[in-house]
Amino acid sequence: MTADYVIIGSGSAGSAMAARLAEAGKSVVVIEEGGSDAGPFIQMPAALSYPMNMKIYDWGFQSEPEPHLGGRRLATPRGRVIGGSSSINGMVYVRGHARDYDTWDEMGAQGWSYADVLPYFQRMENWHGGADATGADSAFRGHSGPLHITRGPRHNPLFNAFIEAGRQAGYPVTPDYNGQAQEGFGAMEATIWKGQRWSAANAYLKPAIKAGKVRLLRAYARRVVIENGRAIGVEVERGGKIEVIPAAAEVIVAASSINSPKILMLSGIGPAAHLAEHGIALVADRPGVGANLQDHLEIYMQFQAARPITLYKYWNLWGKAMIGAQWLFTGKGLGASNQFEACGFIRSKAGVEYPDIQYHFLPIAVRYDGQAAAGGHGFQVHTGPMRSKSRGSVTLRSADPREAPAIRFNYMSEPSDWEDFRAAIRLTREIFAQPAMAGHVKAEIQPGLNLQSDDELDSFLREHVESAYHPCGTCRMGAASDPMAVVDPECRVIGVEGLRVADSSIFPQVTNGNLNGPSIMTGEKAADHILGRKLPKSNLQPMLNPNWRTAQR
Fold this sequence. Notes:
CATH class of the largest domain: Alpha Beta
Distance between the termini: 57 Å
Helix content: 25-40%
Number of helices: 13
Number of strands: 25
Number of domains: 2
Largest sheet: 7 strands, mixed
Mean pLDDT: 96
């Protein structure tokens, strides 16, 4: 089996690249160790808590004991299935803020400013804003791409109550946080179409495979084969045998921010001293491989409901069976939504240029692992800072390709992380005290109103912060002259010919919000770099709060 391009990973970026390269007439092989995404646990949006907790779909990574979180090890789910993490995520669609990409450009990723990336978001989107998006500027959105973007029906009154509480607290209501103005409260968008998870596999990879343009190879990628400074193929293991899949043009690594640096290091690309520790022959000394690891942390602020209007009434075997049956037979009902249907983006204080706190509202008090809060009917909001200064790393434990890497996020290592989280808690309490929400709140479950001081909140945070599952940055993009850059702005691995990386690992800095959308955009844009073309820059201007220097809202 040979091809022009061999892509490691069928996730968000890998699927998009495969489809666009094949569309241009190139032959493509996609290597994916995981299996099928068929079945309700993945395809039913409301079942989102299941696939990321199932070994058949998830690599099962955990962080090393985190020193600033009392030695806790946090789960780091990554998709091990066709579609990668887009097949196990929460389906929330956030582009990120315009200033995120301008910052990338300023950090050395030239050609990745907002004006550069907006056309790729537009190319990939099939946006169904509809009447719910009154006031939105649809010129910012795409309308004919493969990725369907929809909004939930918001039938539960708590969704609109949350948005109204944000307005009452003095924040704007944004008609489209993925359009001209991110800041404010409004409807949340999702990669859901006709009641089904619309993963990168459903949007890109399966149609390309069906058309005969892409071949999917079920195999375990061990390393990139490099001869005389050029990548010539990928060494894989399948059926108990090791073989090489040759690439006539290039190898592209799109294996996630955890596995992509691991594969590079196993291939001899990384910090020279670290590779020497494990007896790996050096091909290119790139100390940035595995460094710059970032993530979003969040807490679940949970409230006991004053009335039994939450989803808790379905949180039993019979209720779940009813929802599942309705979805299986009709594709509709509560099973057709991820239940994240309202959101908010605010700034933590005056002087912050653009939002640095995100909200996902959920009309039930429950964890990602499916554990419901005690006390019956409740609801929650997921919140946390968007731009932590803490940085971690991904390193090898050994030269064994089958051994999981060591993941050290170094969470909460910066004083500003604690300050920003305290601000998020206090601002959230203020929002939930507004008339639109106050009547729905019987009590605060967690953190609990008995926790008020900085020290009390810090103790709660140390025990309860969780990953939002947005790791990125471990193969950072930058100028070729930057010693810590791993890939240049064309996604080419610096110091090796015929090899690129394109996934969330190349992000110089984590973007605002969930990373699935930016990862797909990365695959779209990388495909054009590979093909030697690019879309014209956009001249659309995003909106910033004109009073950001002097006002928090």
